[in-house]
Amino acid sequence: MPRTRHVRLDCSPGCAVEAALQFIDGKWKGVILFHLFERTMRFSELRRRLANVTQRMLTTQLRELERDGLVLRTIHPEIPPRVEYSLTDRGRTLHPVIMALKDWGDMYARPATIPPATAPSAAA
Amino acid sequence: MPRTRHVRLDCSPGCAVEAALQFIDGKWKGVILFHLFERTMRFSELRRRLANVTQRMLTTQLRELERDGLVLRTIHPEIPPRVEYSLTDRGRTLHPVIMALKDWGDMYARPATIPPATAPSAAA
DNA sequence: CATGGCGGTATCATTTCCGATACTATGGGT
DNA sequence: ACCCATAGTATCGGAAATGATACCGCCATG
Description:
Chain A is mainly alpha-helical.
């Protein structure tokens, strides 16, 4: 589990936000979910899509998503082994969230848009 | 900044998701933003709403939100000092994201819904 | 005079996360 | 015999995020 946030979820109204965040927190979970919305994928496919992830991290993140009931892990007992990851029903309910994130990222998180902090003439 | 994620944002399509996540990552940013959507608030108000946050953390998170251009910090030079935090235009664009998170949290992150892992009869 | 509220900062310690590397098992190809 | 691919695990170490605590100036109140 990432960053152990609150255990009690029945606190202030804003807590639902935190509660939701707990599930997609972790360096790679957002992207993993995003890719799984496209289709079911096997381990090595995800690995290729995430490029910079290590095997250990991918495994860890997938295991957490599985533990949280968002992702289903299906082992096909073949040689060579084949393991497929897909979204559960619960996982699919995250679609609006992931898409909201993606849309915002596309619109407002581009490098060119980032530096609206203060005066831009600090290139001394 | 939290968890230093990728620096390059022009990688795979899923990256926009990660990029967006960078801005609301941090244990308290989600809730802070949520509360600021309600209205402008001063430091101590936020502190009361977040209950478990330490002064240091609240300051840190607010400073990061400010640095990212999502939150505006206004100092009223009075006695006692009054500092108000409000959302910037850029910050307000996060509304769909935060609300998607809140809605999901309300619907699917309740304690009763969490344990769909495996067989529940492991209470040995 | 001591206390409390405001909005912080400074310092230190801990917890947690993440990355790198090495190792495993099976079977196929050459 | 040796290397490759799949899908992992195990172990170690460092970096980063978070928490606890103490301290600051200022003023009003009791």
